[in-house]
Amino acid sequence: MKMSNRRKKLIATAIAVMCLAVVALSGPGRAALSKVWSSLTSGDPVATTVQAGGDIEQRARLRHGWNAGVVNSVVRGTMTRYDREGNKTSEAGITLYRRYPDRVRIELEQGGQTIVMGFDDTQAWRSGRASLSEEEARDIRAFLRVWPERLFVGRARGASYREVGRRFEQFKPESPWQDAVKLSPPVEMEQAEMEDRIGAVPAPGQVGDRRRVMYYVEKTNHTIQSVRWLEPDDPRREVSGGRGPMTDVRIEFGDWRMVEGVLWPFEVVRWSGGRVEYRIVLSEVKMNQTLGDTIFQNTNR
Fold first, then answer.
1. Homologous superfamily of domain range 61-296
2. Domain map of the chain by residue range?
3. What is the mean pLDDT for each group of 10 consecutive residues in the chain (301 residues)?
4. In whole angstroms, what is the distance from residue 63 CA to residue 256 CA?
5. Cα separation of 96 and 299, whole Å?
6. Rounded distance between C-alpha atoms, residue 216 and residue 79, angstroms
7. Considering the entire predicted model, what is its pTM?
């Protein structure tokens, strides 16, 4: 059907008015109207344009398939530790039980023995031990922080969040099992920082566990590639003000696989001070298992 001259004039007038409005509006108003203009010219509905947006964390959450229906997870695999020179020092079977946000149980099986430890949302513990040093307790809690979904879980409960621009990863560093790899072209990452607190806010005079954690999200596919934070060398303090010696900690994720609609890294590597500390290679991931409170508590002191 041919369009009448009168209808053509009406459309041209409407377009002209919209263009003038875009120029006259403030920044937010102009952005909103630009979405409408884009939908009119492309033929896509406005709702689709809005849903495709969101901030870095929201895009990553959509990509990872993470949702509030995931309340716990159980992962199994092998954990290999390395010394500062990159030599393997131990290898153990590992099972981690997590109930989000802040409960974890770790079982390490090596040489026919099983070491069990965890954090019950209040206190870190190790089976057969009446007490732990502050450093031991911190290292147990840290198992909660070395997974990509920590970003989604933390922000969902109101953690402070901000975006700090982009960076380019130009190489993968050398590791005990892989030479350094130059990335060509460099991989563009978006950076999102979250203030991550494990456990309750401490009482005056007590030590808490709070870190400013940076998440590096690949710009093209919105996958969390790595996590980074500064760890105080003194376990008796939090990160606040940047005072005192600290060690750079970095977690690298790899071997991504989809499990029941959720994207999981089947390889997790923790770097400390520029050296590999341990590598976890998973063999199994399960979600929403029956996990009672007692599994996260020390019932064998």
1. Lipoprotein localisation LolA/LolB/LppX (2.50.20.10)
2. 5-53, 61-296
3. 48 43 39 32 29 80 97 98 96 98 97 95 93 93 97 96 94 90 93 93 76 96 96 78 82 97 98 96 98 90 61
4. 12
5. 17
6. 24
7. 0.80
